[in-house]
Amino acid sequence: MTIAAPDTRTRVLDVAERLVQTRGFNGFSYADISVEVGISKASLHYHFPTKAELVGCLVERYEHDFHLAVSRIDNSHDHALDRLKAYSEIYVRVLKADRMCLCGMLAADYTTLPDVIQKRVLKFFQFNEDWLTSALSRGRARKEITFAGKPSEAAHLLVSTLEGAMLLARAHKDIARFRLLAASLLKGLALK
Amino acid sequence: MTIAAPDTRTRVLDVAERLVQTRGFNGFSYADISVEVGISKASLHYHFPTKAELVGCLVERYEHDFHLAVSRIDNSHDHALDRLKAYSEIYVRVLKADRMCLCGMLAADYTTLPDVIQKRVLKFFQFNEDWLTSALSRGRARKEITFAGKPSEAAHLLVSTLEGAMLLARAHKDIARFRLLAASLLKGLALK
DNA sequence: GTCTATAGGCAGATAGAC
DNA sequence: GTCTATCTGCCTATAGAC
């Protein structure tokens, strides 16, 4: 299976994604993308008329990729702890690329975002919490894991902690500490 | 005890602080401050020659205020759970003002910050984790709370979770959910 | 300390040729 | 699809008068 050379539109999205994840919505410009992709600013506007549309597409693609990643987890892992571990490894992969979660970053920039993007960012977090809620709920019913309180609250805790830890880990350039924290989070769910 | 009318410098810092906490380092300008404080952009440069210096002062003041807040906690609360609850209420107060933690916000903007500011942001988190580490350590020694593993790791978990939850709560405009999460975090530390 | 005026550059975005 | 050229407006910052 070969991977086709990415078209211009995709290359633009790839560069823009990295820029948002590292510098935030207000920390990059069309000029930055132009240099890296090797086409003029005007050409970028052909593909994405406005910055709002560009970043909107970015969030859409990111959420789509996340959907794929978690359904792969559903198909390849059965035990709740394995699923949650695989989930946390998505975050580790992002951190390894010296990036913040795209939507975590946009959550920081939230008040400066166009309406359309704000809604998509919220949808992303909702999707994550929903998936975690169901993974936690199923795992507890099967007696694979244990935790107190509602699954939805535990899911909220997991997303918050992973996003927050990511924010700090990137600044500290300390992925090891992030892994340690993720591991101890999972340990807290293991049967005693 | 009366509060003196704030001087211009202080009013500039107050406005700038709110702008950074709501819009991020790259999401506001001297023009924004100028309008709100009611003096010209040029006058702002008299007080703070560069944006880097302005935000540097902001972080310094924020950390100083945090120092004061936690030493008040040390003096007014003895039980570890009370101390930690009071600590989490600092975050709630920030959230109530529709703001993100100043340094949490700057952690997102991290790669775009001047060196001096990057270092101060890290120092802020270090201070928080150190204080929490000692509060947790003392509390466990006195058998006021319980938790597994090193105090420093539990401290890291607390800061990460509170910062991450704040990021999400502000976007969702849902302080109640933040409170719930903070409460269940503390509940996890309570003696069984 | 505060102002007006302005520099010099970059932002997002458009027009029109190829 | 991509280009050059350009627009308008905002950015940080400075000069110099009051």
Describe the structure.
The structure is a homodimer of 192-residue chains. The first copy, chain A, has 192 residues and is an all-alpha fold. Chain A has helices at 8-23, 30-37, 41-47, 51-76, 80-96, 102-108, 115-141, 151-172, 175-187. The termini of chain A are far apart. The mean pLDDT of chain A is 97. Chains A and B meet through helix 6, helix 7, helix 8 and helix 9 of A and helix 6, helix 7, helix 8 and helix 9 of B. Chain A binds a DNA duplex (18 and 18 nucleotides) through helix 3.
Beta strand count of chain A: 0
Continuous helix count of chain A: 9
Structural class of chain A comes to mainly alpha
Q: What's the multimeric state?
A: homodimer
Strand content of chain A: under 5%
Low-confidence stretches of chain A: none
Question: Given this structure, which CATH class of one domain in chain A is correct?
Answer: Mainly Alpha
* Fourth-tier CATH superfamily name of one domain in chain A: Tetracycline Repressor, domain 2
The greatest inter-chain interface is formed by:
A-B, 44 and 44 residues
Rg of chain A (CA only): 18 Å
Give the CA-based shape of chain A. elongated
- CATH T-level fold name of one domain in chain A: Tetracycline Repressor, domain 2
Task: Write the H/E string of chain A, N to C.
Answer: HHHHHHHHH
Distance between the termini of chain A: 44 Å
Give the overall average pLDDT of chain A.
97
Largest sheet of chain A: none
What is the CATH architecture descriptor of one domain in chain A?
Orthogonal Bundle
Question: What percentage of residues of chain A falls in helices of 4 or more residues?
Answer: over 70%
